[in-house]
Amino acid sequence: MDPLTLGALGFVVLIALVILGVHIAFATALTGFIGIAMMKGWAVASNVAGIIPHSTASNYLFSVLPMFILIGFFAHASGMVSGAYRVARAWAGWLPGGLAISTVFAAAGFGAVSGASQATAAVFARVAIPELLKLKYNPSLSAAAVAASGTLASLIPPSAALVVYGAIVDQSIGRLLLAGFIPGVFSALLYALFLLIRFSANPELGQPIRGISWGERGLSLLGVWPIILVMVMILGGMSTGWTTPTEAGATGAAIVFVYALLRRKLSFSALNDSLVETAKLTVMIFATFWGVFIFARFLAFTRLPTVIAEWIVALPFEPTMILAAILLCYAFLGMFMSASGMMLLTLPVIFPAIVELGIDPILFGILVVKMVEIGLVTPPVGLNVYVVGGIRRDIPVHQIFRAIWPFVTIDVLTVVLLIMFPGIVLFLPNFFMGA
Amino acid sequence: MAGRDAPLLRTLDTSLLRVEWAAAVIGGWTIFALMFLVSAEVLLRRLLNSPIPGQQDITILSMATFGVLCVSFCYRQAGHIRMDLLLLQVQGRAHWIMQLLVTLVALLTITAILPGTWNHFLRAFEFGDTTFGIGLPTWPSKLMAPIGLGILWARLVLEIWVFGRLIADPEAEPIGVPEPPNPLEDMDT
Predict the structure, then answer these.
(1) A62 in contact with chain B, both atoms CB, cutoff 8 A
(2) How large is the ipTM?
(3) Helix, strand, coil share (%) of chain B residues, nearest 5
(4) pLDDT tens-place string over residues B109-126
(5) Who is most buried in A175, A203, A346, A412, counting CB within 10 A?
(6) CB contact at 8 A, B76 and B178
(7) Residue B189 above 50 pLDDT?
(8) Taking a contact as any Cβ pair under 8 Å apart, which residues of chain A between 272 and 331 contact chain B?
């Protein structure tokens, strides 16, 4: 069998296994292993597949992942989320739809200490929705705002999804993280603007909070110093070149840990649980990395990605059109699969084409993550919506889905804006790390 | 659930889970230790201009504890990324048959990879391979791969029993079926 056919066949088998329910780590590793064995012999396959698990698990660049995950767990355990919520509420509560807008800003702020979209949605479903309902805010709109706001965490650094992207396509993780900041904040502002307009037009959906004193506002700021410190550490450390992403992550985690200790929020068993969970999540991503790397090695032997890239570049369409088509595919896939799963499966095949098309890899990373996040809030498998619906069983999932469309529209508009004005994404990394 | 018990399976599952949990504890505390090590390195390097020698070497070598050693714990807790849309549509015996097939694919994968990881360790051990920085031996780290995958292999073999039993008797209590402790807390990236 010629290598190209074998490559294509391998990909088909991989997809079939994934649809059947085989874990992505095993499906990719097995197809990759068999493919390499068929092309180069069993000994080579065994050698390649034997080296990759350890070489992946000893790549210094990837050590940033557990640190980012740890920040999220410590931030959760320390009750930092309520601090963020109190500040947002004190400062933005007076606006029309103030509490809903506060939820968006608090989630964006919490995104600065959390890299996981669903986790953020889960935390806010517990913290924010009861408050929103107490003030008689529309339940489905409240739940939709929470589900959508969760997605902000995956762009605002620390972002696990961007690290995964950087790891697979071998791009600077520091650049990617810096690039995610402005689009993340931009999305939060657009969400808030939408809520402002929506609640101004229809005040019955929820009332602003009145009578917050300036003293209360000032005091509320005390609850967010660790978030600000972590942000300064991560963004500042990386943009000045003072720290590597791992170092920024480790110091960020240490800051949140000290804060949790000071607040006496972290018992020994809670600490142990956080650490075990962090290890579990890290090994989950690492295992998928090795699987994908074995598969990517097989694909490289077949030259399939190169041929696909050449084919895509030869298409009689503008690169922007092709980019739009690729992103649409991501939005579709995002309906069925988790962010990292989808990126891990597709990027080894599609990324060479992106490079050939002359699309900036950093910009593409941000766009892909944004598309994936759209998938997380759209039916049928909008995971963030299910997480919120699972925690608040009194709010039917289909109503949340109905209320979430404006947020999805805003996200699609954001993606279009980012494509039209790539400077929004590339400004920070280019400014601090050179073009 | 009819609740028909299988004491031996339950014991094996719990015992293996203990080993898996221990591996995850090692992984987790290593992350914690690295957090301090790396933070200390940043402070010492930037403030006192005296970096900790071999910090990168230690980091790289210890990563295997949370990069591969605890892989089976994640499997038992249904942590690995998969698309279970189709799997969840199928109920009863057919569901368990599909689960068994999926487990067999996983077992085949690990059986294929495992010898290679062992050889990779053995080469490092026999040739005395060391790190670039401060010359630490790499074999203990490389040994984590066959140990971690070995535990996973044992788990997958046990899962064949788990699903085989449920195929024979779909009404039996599902002992040893990987499930997240709390589906809503199960975070993904």
Answers:
(1) yes
(2) 0.93
(3) 70, 0, 30
(4) 999 999 999 999 999 999
(5) A175
(6) yes
(7) no
(8) 272, 274-288, 290
